């Protein structure tokens, strides 16, 4: 890495940031694209978000990613927010403008691109979303915006699913969102739905857990995407595949949310072979075996 007087700085704010794979993704991408940019982690305490973002702006930092626990708090410090990110109420990418940072949510752009690549369209599709937490929230808004025909939001706590369903219904008047408990999964009067698994259930080291065990649920599904990437094949994905349905993990989503931020900051779209190199390095760094 050749850091010079002209080198631009991007970085990640959050707490913790020590285990993040974002520096590897962005620095590799910059190297492959021949950009004069370095990406560094910045651990920021909860009370310091404003000072950190204003300080970064004063230091001419080009762009920032924002991770847990600052994705909501950072909204107050931005000069502008992308409309869908504003509706979700969470941003993970800040882009420098003449008047301050503009906030985006590239997590949903990452999922969108992963689905597109898998040949799965949200438009006019029936989607079953498992979970109603922070990740589910962004994904549910994406499904509503993309014109999913029906969205079922199933969660352990039914109340939480109901609250989210009501909010999405308000934000997108055409959206048809139904909330329910996880025990309803095998009883839905639908077929060929896309399942999006948005919780941490099944994540390493609890690899033998899945939110839904009812085989009927998987038999009636068309395809499934898990946001988990470690293990590479979750129990949810195994259930899908055992019933002959395609299943995808969250590693591409992680890669594509980073590349979406990269494109916003640098206006550069990486060549396909460069994307493959980064994907391979991510798998090595995360010790993912497929
Ligand atoms: P995130 O930001 O990762 O989505 P979160 O906002 O804490 O995290 O949400 C966690 C989600 O995983 C919720 O849908 C939660 O269900 P509840 O709302 O009922 O708590 C779900 N979840 C976590 N652990 C779970 C478990 N052991 N069984 C079922 N659902 C679980």
Defining traits:
single chain, six-stranded mixed beta sheet, 290 residues, binds 2'-monophosphoadenosine-5'-diphosphate, alpha/beta, 10 helices
What does this structure look like?
By secondary structure, this protein is an alpha/beta fold. The protein contains 10 helices and 12 strands. It has a 6-stranded mixed sheet, with helices on both faces. It has a 6-stranded parallel sheet with strand order 9-8-7-10-11-12. The longest helix is centred in the last third of the chain and has 16 residues, at 251-266. 2'-monophosphoadenosine-5'-diphosphate is lined by residues 131-136, 155-157, 160, 199-201, 211.
| Tally of individual helices | 10
Enumerate the spans where pLDDT stays under 50 for 5 or more consecutive residues: none
Q: Level of helix content?
A: 25-40%
* Amount of beta strand: 15-25%
Query: Largest sheet at a glance?
Result: 6 strands, mixed
Radius of gyration, whole Å: 19 Å
The tally of strands reads 12
Q: Helix- and strand-based class? A: alpha/beta
The side-by-side strand order for the widest beta sheet comes to 2-1-3-5-6-4
Distance between the termini: 30 Å
Q: What would the principal axes of the Cα set say about the shape?
A: globular
Could you tell me which ligands this complex binds, including any ions or cofactors? 2'-monophosphoadenosine-5'-diphosphate
Order of helices and strands: EHEHEEHEEHEHEHEEHEHEHH
Mean pLDDT: 97
